[in-house]
Structures are given as structure tokens and as C-alpha cells.
Amino acid sequence: MHILIIEDDLDLGRALQKALKLEGFSSEWLRQAVDAPRSFEGLHYACILLDLSLPDGDGQALLARWRGAGVAIPIIIMTARAALEERLAGLDGGADDFIVKPFATVELASRMRAVLRRYAQQSWQVWTIGDLELEPKSCMARLAGSPVNLSRREFQLMLELAREPGVVVSKSALSERLEPLGEPVNFGAIDVHIFNLRSKIGGHRIRTVRGVGYMLVRC
């Protein structure tokens, strides 16, 4: 999953990118409010990590602008401001969660997974789509209770489709989200992974929308 980090601190930014990569997340890192996207059309972020204290502006203003424009991407605020009023302002302003610096990256990763579960309308550590079960933390899959042997790439592709079952996910979005796990993923490679997934979980579960991408069907 591809994450946007907006954090001005060099050491923290570098540490976050390194730690999140170990957790299976790719990331783009920006250090100023002026560089933050005004529109997210064509951008494929699973989550935004937003610092409130930026050198050229306030993260709270970015949050308000995005939510006012209808941006629905999950946003977690990172800040050294520990006052209750600050936390409430962030949450009431549209943030999905709030973490106070300094924090352990394992806690941040756990909070990110929780936010992403809520976004995908999954309530626990196991994502359930019909009789298909996915465990993001352990990269395990089960179909009707029986284990399914998926490669890491296949599992991540399955998870990206499971984030929005019933919604077409473009090949360009899948390519961008999967690239950090290794070599760049071209569209041909995605087609091959989809073919392999269909052979393991049933071809009827993944629908092709020609010229656009793929959609996970609830069964």
C-alpha cells in the first residue's frame, strides 16, 4: 500500500520511510505544505500521515482543505502537541486518528492497519469478503476455511482489490501500489498475477473491466 508522508523533520521522515517499508508499505515523503497535493485525482494513496507543525503552514489547514474538497483518504495526524484540545481539533476536523510524538513505528503501523480496516469496512485483523479471508499482518489467506498458498505479491494484489470490493481498481493504481515490494510491476506482470490468483481462488471472484482494470466480486 502506498502512503503519503508530510513531515518536515529529516530524521523522522527517513526513519518512517525505512520502518514502513519493512511493514510492507511504500511511501512518498514531502516536507512542506506548499508541496502537498491540492487534488488527489490520479493519485493512489492508501493513507496520509500528516504533521501539524510544518515550516510553511499548519497541517490542520491542509486537513480542512482536503476534507472540504471531499477527499476521503484516511489521514493520521502526527504531532508533538499533546494537549487534549489539539487532539480534539484534529479529530473533529476530519482526521481518522492521532498519534503523539515520539512514538514507536510499530504502534503507528498498527494504527494505520486499523484505519485501513475501517476504510475497507473490515472490523478485525481478518478481512472477510464472502468466504475469502485475508490476514494482512501475517499475509495469510483462506478460502472456505482452507489455507490458500499465495505469494507475497499475489497477497498484496489481493489485498489492494479487497480494499474496495465491487469497485474497479485500475492497472496503473495497482502498479504504483505494488512496486515497492521489489521490481517495478508492469501491466503484463499484473495480468499474470491475476491469472494465478484466479486459478487459486476461482476465476469468478475477479472480474476484468477491459481497458481499465480489475474488480473483486463478493461471493
Fill in the keyword field for this structure:
219 residues; alpha/beta; five-stranded parallel sheet; four-stranded antiparallel sheet; 14 strands; 24% strand; elongated; two-component regulatory system; phosphoprotein; transcription; CheY-like_superfamily; DNA-binding
How would you explain this protein's 3D organization?
The protein has 219 residues and is an alpha/beta fold. It is 37% helix and 24% strand. The chain contains 7 helices and 14 strands. The strands form 4 sheets. The protein has a 5-stranded parallel β-sheet, with helices on both faces. A 4-stranded antiparallel β-sheet has the order 8-9-10-11, covered by helices on one side. The relative contact order is 0.12.
Overall geometry: elongated
Query: If you average the pLDDT, what whole number results?
Result: 85
Which percent range describes the beta-strand content? 15-25%
Low-confidence stretches: none
Instruction: Compute the number of strand runs.
Output: 14
Give the N-terminus to C-terminus distance in angstroms.
24 Å
**Estimated structural class:** alpha/beta
H/E topology pattern? EHEEEEHEHEHEEEEHEHHEE
Q: So how many helices?
A: 7
The strand order across the widest sheet is 2-1-3-6-7
| Main β sheet profile | 5 strands, parallel
Question: Could you estimate the helical fraction of the residues in percent?
Answer: 25-40%
* Rounded Rg: 18 Å
